Amino acid sequence: MIQLQYIKENRNECIERLKIKHVADVEQRIDEIIALDEQRRSLQQRSDAVKAEQNSLAKQIGALYKQGQRDEAEAKKALTAELKTEEKQLNDKMATVEQELNAKLISLPNTPHISVPQGRTADDNLEVGRFGKQPDLGPDALPHWDLCAKYDLVDFELGNKITGAGFPVYKGRGARLQRALINFFLNSAADAGYVEIQPPLMVNEASGLGTGQLPDKEGQMYTIPLDGFYMIPTAEVPITNIYRNVIVDAAQFPIKHVGYSECFRREAGSYGKDVRGLNRLHEFSKVEIVVIEHPDRSYERLEEMKAHVGGLLDKLGLPYRILKLCGGDISFTSAMTFDFEVWSAAQKRWLEVSSVSNFEAFQANRMKLRFKDPDGKTRLAHTLNGSALALPRIVAALLENNQTADGITMPECLRPYLGFDAIQ
Asked: What does the alpha-carbon distance between residue 65 and residue 57 come to, in Å, rounded to a whole number?
């Protein structure tokens, strides 16, 4: 949630930055927020004045009774009753205004960093780096869904039978490859100083609101209405919410966590080649890194997280590129995001495998995640996260890019976890 003080003190700047995200009716929405805050403050001032008047009358009434001036005291008691009625009306009105103000604030996306490029769609994202050599496998190269069938690695039809489309069943060496990747990613993060968390796979509404999945992504989340729970779309949600309503010790910065989880996304409206095989699933495995950092160092930490993700892809031997997302493609909560895409040699296209983002104080403001400066002033922390990494498209690219006439060669870094060098 954007800080109200920032909106009031920097109206024009806030509007211009939100225009980069193509927020509809942004001037009107900002002005409505400012007007509601002014109304709330006015009501608060009047309520405080009414309370002060009641306190003054209470003292006068006591003195009048002592002086035997009963009629005057009763008249002031009647006036006190009127003031109490007015106070209740003011408080009820103030609660309504505060509720409306909060609803408007919480529906407003984060302001993008000043360096986020203009643009409306993924086609406008800025490529900032390309790494590794794209293999040329020739015309007979098989896409990963055919390789999965050939070597009995993933059964899509069985998953459809058990649950539905987008819930594959990993089998034999396919399941072992999943486990190897998860362990490799977790151990690499631990070596980089991330403390592992095994989070719940369901969260409550407050957690969804805290990290910004609600109300923005409610339609994309699987819900359990009877209990008021949501299946997590990423481990970011439960891990970051560890620090909801917490004042952390600034000496702990950076607070670095990593967690493996299953992720659940409805992906409503997905169709075509983008959903074939492992390209887009409703349930998938992912290792997530989360950082809580001092505001002065959060962009330095973002670069460190980018380097960590790039290092994993280098070790896996996957060609990849890094994109800086434009205003129209960046998420509701993010101030800056870099996407990592690996090259799929058989599909001959790029597949997104990671997003690394800085949310600045947006999530922290919603969660009331704070720290104290050396002078004792309480401030909002910055939150960051990144996929390190999401498994389905990593598996797709590994299978496709490493296929040979004799089988599928496995990267050196995975062999200690796998117990085999190739899938044959």
From this structure: 12
Residue 268's pLDDT is what?
55
Q: Contact, 109 vs 327, CB < 8 A?
A: no
Q: Which two tokens stand for residue 40?
A: 């709330």
Beta carbons of 352 and 148 less than 8 angstroms apart: no
The two tokens of residue 350 are: 């790029």
Contacts 24+ apart (CB under 8 A), 43-49: 43/90, 43/93, 43/94, 43/97, 44/94, 46/90, 47/87, 47/90, 47/91, 47/94
Q: ω before 215 within 30° of 0 (cis)?
A: yes
What's the rounded Cα separation, in Å, for the pair 230 and 207? 9
| pLDDT tens-place string over residues 26-43 | 999 999 999 999 999 999
Residues in Cβ contact with 329 at an 8 Å cutoff, skipping those fewer than 6 apart: 119, 120, 121, 122, 124, 125
CB 203 within 8 A of CB 229: yes
User: Is the full-model pTM beyond 0.85?
Assistant: yes
| pLDDT at residue 386, rounded to an integer | 98
Kindly tell me if the per-residue pLDDT of 214 is higher than 70. yes
The amino acid sitting at 372 is K
d(CA 289, CA 192): 11
Q: How far apart are CA 413 and CA 407, in angstroms?
A: 18
Could you give the CA distance from residue 328 to residue 122 in angstroms, rounded to a whole number? 8
The CA distance from 39 to 46, in Å, is: 11
**Which pLDDT value is given to residue 267?**
74
* Residues with Cβ within 8 Å of residue 220, at least 6 apart in sequence: 233, 265, 266, 267, 268
